[in-house]
Amino acid sequence: MQRRHPAVKPLEERLSERIDSIVRRVQNALPEDLKKLALGVPVYCEWKMAPHWLEEGLAPDTLGVFSGPSLADSTEPPSLESPAITFFLSELWDYCDGDQAAFDEEARITYLHEFGHYLGLEEDDMEERGLL
Asked: What architecture (CATH level 2) is domain 11-62+82-128?
């Protein structure tokens, strides 16, 4: 049986920690009103995309997704689902060919893009703002 060094964390854990750090940096750089909104949207990491995402129509190479109601939604009755952003670590890591600098940049872009969805921005709006 092969043992790993106790100080070496699994890739999934290391990437999840990188996402946490990147998201915190992005949130801290936002204007105060947006930062307050961003802090209210939890961020999750999944190693592989769960089957329910594919059943909901996401492409298998999706890097992240916003789920739940956006600020632009006015559903009656109110949605029981809370807003959230989920990263798909394996897809993101593969997309970046294992390059940490590229991973960090794509994670930053993905977070801003998904946060844009929370704000109610459409793809065209995000493209104009450089979030695509």
From this structure: 2-Layer Sandwich (3.30)
